[in-house]
Amino acid sequence: MKIAVIGTGYVGLVTGTCLSETGNSVICVDIDPDKVQKMKSGIIPIYEPGLDVLFHRNIKQDRLHFTTDLAEAVKHAEIIFLALPTPPGGDGAADLSYILSASLEIAKLVKEYKVIVNKSTVPVGTADKVSAVFKENLAPGITVDVVSNPEFLREGVAVEDFMKPDRVVIGTRSETAKRLMTELYAPYVRQGNPIIYMDERSSELTKYAANSFLATKITFMNEIANLCELVGADVDAVRRGIGSDDRIGRRFLFPGVGYGGSCFPKDVQALVKSASDAAYDFKILKSVISVNEKQKVVLVNKVKKYFNGNIKDKSFAIWGLAFKPETDDIREAPSLYIINELLELGAKVSVYDPEAMGNVKALLGDRIDYSIDPYEALNGADALLIVTEWSAFRNPDFEKMKALLKANVIFDGRNLFDIEKMTDLGFYYNSIGRKLVNNES
Ligand code: UDX
Question: Which reaction equation describes what this protein catalyses (predicted)?
């Protein structure tokens, strides 16, 4: 099929590339000429495991194209995906200006029936707003259908999530659009995972409900972990104990330093705002937001307590900056909150991350030190803080760590190590919701 994808951010690029992989002819459009030039010459603007293979293969096979020319893409495509940013506006509601202005431009270019698919995460009612823009601006006699088709891609495994989705949600009441979308997604659900059809508004809400539910699940576990510490229970045991109940499930029960990233914080906020616009007070989600804010600095609070509030001129190593492993994304990353707190308290900070160092450097410059490997960051540090659970941190050389650290003190925001092992190794080891290992007392 012939496809256009408008916007080559994270979602647009993964969507365009993965759609070309099953034989579709895809044109991706971006307004940034430098970015388009780079992609044309085979440079991927984001880090996403596995994307490069598909990207290069489909460019080579002439199925994946990049352009700044919206008219060319609109002419080419029978299905046009909108994958544009919906940043939070001042009041927490998603800002629809990119989507609505692109819709206006596209409407003026359309000369025959098209399916317009909204991939971005947008508040309930957006498909109606986009439809209205088209209705007002299409040439007489021409129609389009606007479909809601939210993405459920996790960064780091986005290619797999796209190629083998748990489900595809298609929100449309048009039989023609439904038929075309079903044909497009058929190769991706061959293993039997469902395409779930619904109306546009339910589809838009499904995306917010999914992310907000997951954010709530994580936040609930973070609170259980905090309670475990106070009552002498072990969150790992509790996690296993509840996760084996199918109704709860094993996934997304890992306590840590709070959720971050480009989706959960933004989507939870936006759902609270949508609810309040509809005169509904979404109490659970308001609590999720405030608990998560506190959780982001839970590690710093542990540090402060350990040093009796005096961390001025102390130096800290931080392992992990990305909001989660296998990405270079630092949007709403707990690491940034932790670093800011430490700097404000007068501490020195030395960091290491396998992928996200460049992004952090662009933001924080020389306010902190950047290390070439995890061990360099430890040199002379008063303590190590583990913030992102990269696999490379899971089995480190503990003796080497001891030799480099000024004191054998670890605050682990991701529960990477065994309590028994850390006890035997002689560390002070403070993790989330588990027994404190204190070899110093
Ligand atoms: C999320 C959704 O999973 C995806 O379906 C949606 O389309 C976009 O938002 P992503 O932001 O890439 O994907 O990350 P995800 O793997 O869901 O993790 C989100 C945050 O929750 C991270 O900060 C992660 O560290 C945290 N998390 C996740 C936990 O703290 N504990 C867990 O058990 C799982």
Answer: UDP-alpha-D-glucose + 2 NAD(+) + H2O = UDP-alpha-D-glucuronate + 2 NADH + 3 H(+)
